[in-house]
């Protein structure tokens, strides 16, 4: 009978880190019922996995925070054709009500974004690009004390552009911005904002 080959212990290296960070990692490992070594090794493995995806752990955490905001606001995925058909029918009969609902939903998103990210406008743009909005391009221009935003979503209708503009207005207002100019066309939404002092 052959001998079972044992795994060779992996060589370990010393990594320097601030003492308070090491203490926090130790506490987190204890809360999860893991050894400090196992916990830190998992963190390094996850960082390398993120790197293979051309992502950073911070961008993945931000994406998670954004998905949690969507979950908390009740976002549900529906087929695009169904959504467009439903919106077209409802829009023709209840345009004002729909615009108000989208504005209020935007305000809720803005409220949930506020204070959770270092750059709230960047987080808002990521939310729009990563969400189910079909926006595939966002242009940002800083002009003096204002910011011009252009959202491009070629596959959406004029009605949906109008509703998205209302959503964006609500979110940006909650984030502490005033809308200076706004326009929406089929698949293009332009918004110029300034920070309310």
Features:
6 helices, Muramoyl-pentapeptide Carboxypeptidase, domain 2, 4-stranded antiparallel β-sheet, elongated, alpha+beta, single chain
Give an overview of the whole structure:
This protein has two domains: 19-54; 79-195, Muramoyl-pentapeptide Carboxypeptidase, domain 2. It is built from six helices and four strands, in the order H-H-H-H-H-E-E-H-E-E. It has helices at 19-31, 36-52, 57-72, 80-113, 120-130, 158-174; strands at residues 137-143, 146-152, 177-185, 188-195. The protein is an alpha+beta fold. Helix 3 (57-72) packs across helix 5 (120-130) and helix 4 runs parallel beside helix 6. The model has no long low-confidence stretch (mean pLDDT 85). The protein is elongated, with a radius of gyration of 23 Å.
Molecular shape: elongated
User: Can you give the mean pLDDT?
Assistant: 85
The largest sheet, given as strand count, sense and whether it forms a barrel, is: 4 strands, antiparallel
CATH topology value of the largest domain: Muramoyl-pentapeptide Carboxypeptidase, domain 2
Rg from C-alpha positions? 23 Å
Order of helices and strands: HHHHHEEHEE
Poorly predicted tracts of residues = none
In percent, how much strand structure appears in the residues?
15-25%
Number of domains: 2
Strand order of the largest sheet: 1-2-4-3
| Name given to the CATH architecture of the largest domain | 2-Layer Sandwich
* Tally of strands: 4
- Helix fraction bin: 40-55%
């Amino acid at each position: 009978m052959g001998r079972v080959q044992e795994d060779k212990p992996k060589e370990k290296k010393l990594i320097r880190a601030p003492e308070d960070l090491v203490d926090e990692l130790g506490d987190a490992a204890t809360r999860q019922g893991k050894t400090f070594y196992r916990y830190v090794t998992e963190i390094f493995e996850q960082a390398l996995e993120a790197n293979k995806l051309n992502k950073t752990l911070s961008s993945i955490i931000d994406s998670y925070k954004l998905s949690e905001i969507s979950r908390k606001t009740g976002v549900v995925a529906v087929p695009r054709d169904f959504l467009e058909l439903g919106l077209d029918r409802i829009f023709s009969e209840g345009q004002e009500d729909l615009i108000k609902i989208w504005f209020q939903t935007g305000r809720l998103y803005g409220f949930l974004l506020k204070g959770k990210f270092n750059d709230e406008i960047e987080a808002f743009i990521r939310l729009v690009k990563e969400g189910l909005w079909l926006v595939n391009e966002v242009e940002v221009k800083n002009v003096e004390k204002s910011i011009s935003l252009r959202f491009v979503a070629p596959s959406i209708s004029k009605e949906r552009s109008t509703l998205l503009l209302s959503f964006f207005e609500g979110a940006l207002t909650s984030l502490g911005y005033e809308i200076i100019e706004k326009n929406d066309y089929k698949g293009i939404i332009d918004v110029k904002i300034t920070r309310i002092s």
